[in-house]
Amino acid sequence: MTKKTSLRIGILEGDDIGHEVVPASVRIAKAAAAATGMSIEWVDVPIGRRALDTLGHTMPEGTLETLGALDGFILGPIGHREYPKVPEAINPHPILRKRFDLFANVRPTRSFPGIGCLHDDVDMVIVRENNEGFQPDRNVVMGSGEFRPTHDVTISVRVITVEGSSKVARAAFEIARSRRKKLTLVHKNTVYKLGCGMFVDSCYEVAKDFPDVEVNEVIVDTMAMRLVRDPQSFDTIVTTNMFGDILTDEAAGLVGGLGMAPGLCIGRGSIAMAQATHGSAPDIAGKGIANPFAMIESTRMLFDWMGHHHKIDAALGMSRLMKAGIDAALADPATRTPDIRGTGTQADMVNGILRGMEAAHMPA
Ligand code: ATP
C-alpha cells in the first residue's frame, strides 16, 4: 500500500451554531495545514436543514457515496428536533454512524485553569458505544426499538451484542494503552445481568490482549457520583451507549459545559468523523457567542487520528499546532467565550487560537 500524503476531508456544517463552529474549525485546520505542509482537499457536503430547504432532503441522495470516498469528515450539530415532520427530514446521525461502522464515540474531558471547571487536573476519556444499546434509532433494522402495545404501556428494547461490545472494548483498550494504561468498565450488571453482563464479559475477553492495561469496574450510578467527587481517579472509561450519553454530558459539566466537550467517532475502517458532544444550541445561534472549542478540538482529534492511522507526520504536526493555539486562547479571558468565564466572542477565540498557532510555529 502506498503511503498517503494528502487527505480528503468533508465539511458538513449541520444546523444552527454548526454554521459558525464548523467554519471556524475548518479555518483553523486550514491554517495548521498551511503551516505544516499538509495537503488537504476540502469537500463541502450539504446536510441538515439547509439541505432540506435547498435540495429537498436533510441527507440528499448521493451523500453517503460522497462521504465514502473521503478520508474523514467534520460533522456539525444536527437540530433534528426542529425539523418539519416530513419524510425528507431525517436525522442523519445514526445513518452515518452505522454506514461507516463508527462504533466508538471517543469523548475526552480535560480541565483548563480559569474557565470555571468544578475540578482541576481532570484528564479522562469516555469511550461510548455508538451503534446499539437503548437508543431506538440504532437497535433495530426496521421500525423502532420502542413500541406501545396499549395506550398506557411502552416497551423500550435495548440491544447488546458480543460483537458490538468487543469492538468498542478493543478501541477503548487501545486508547487506554496510549494513555495511563487504566481502563474503567462502567455498567450495571447487578441489575442488567444479561445485557450488561454480556458487555462486561466481552470486555474481559478483549482484556486478554492487553495485559499491560489495568482494568477495574464501577457501577453506573456510583460512577455518576464519583465523576462529581473524584474525577481525577479516572483515565479511560468504556461504557454502553446510553450510559455514555449521560456520563459524557455530566463530564462536560465538570469542565465548563457542553462547549468544552469534543468527540471523535471511530471504527475499524479508515474513516473517522469529528463530532462535538453538544447539540445545535438554537438559543445562542447567530449571536457570535457559541464556544467553538468542542468542534475545533474534535477537528484536532480527527487530524491526530489520521496522522497515527496513516502515519502522516504533517497531520500530527497540525494536531500539535492546533493544541498550542487552543491552549493559548483558553489561557486568556479576552480570547474565551462567555460560557467559560471569557469576555470575548467566538471570533475573538478563533483569532486567539490562530495567533497562538502562529506564535508556536515561529522558530525559537
Ligand atoms: P442534543 O440533544 O441535540 O445534544 P441538547 O438538548 O443537549 O441537544 P444543546 O443544543 O447541546 O442541547 O444545548 C444545551 C445547552 O448548552 C444550551 O443552553 C446551549 O446554549 C448550550 N450549549 C451547547 N453548545 C454550546 C456551545 N458550543 N457553546 C456555548 N453553549 C453551548
Automatic annotation (TrEMBL):
<dbReference type="Pfam" id="PF00180">
    <property type="entry name" value="Iso_dh"/>
</dbReference>
<protein>
    <submittedName>
        <fullName>3-isopropylmalate dehydrogenase</fullName>
        <ecNumber>1.1.1.85</ecNumber>
    </submittedName>
</protein>
<dbReference type="GO" id="GO:0003862">
    <property type="term" value="F:3-isopropylmalate dehydrogenase activity"/>
</dbReference>
<keyword id="KW-0560">Oxidoreductase</keyword>
<dbReference type="InterPro" id="IPR019818">
    <property type="entry name" value="IsoCit/isopropylmalate_DH_CS"/>
</dbReference>
<dbReference type="InterPro" id="IPR024084">
    <property type="entry name" value="IsoPropMal-DH-like_dom"/>
</dbReference>
<comment type="similarity">
    <text>Belongs to the isocitrate and isopropylmalate dehydrogenases family.</text>
</comment>
<feature type="domain" description="Isopropylmalate dehydrogenase-like">
    <location>
        <begin position="8"/>
        <end position="353"/>
    </location>
</feature>
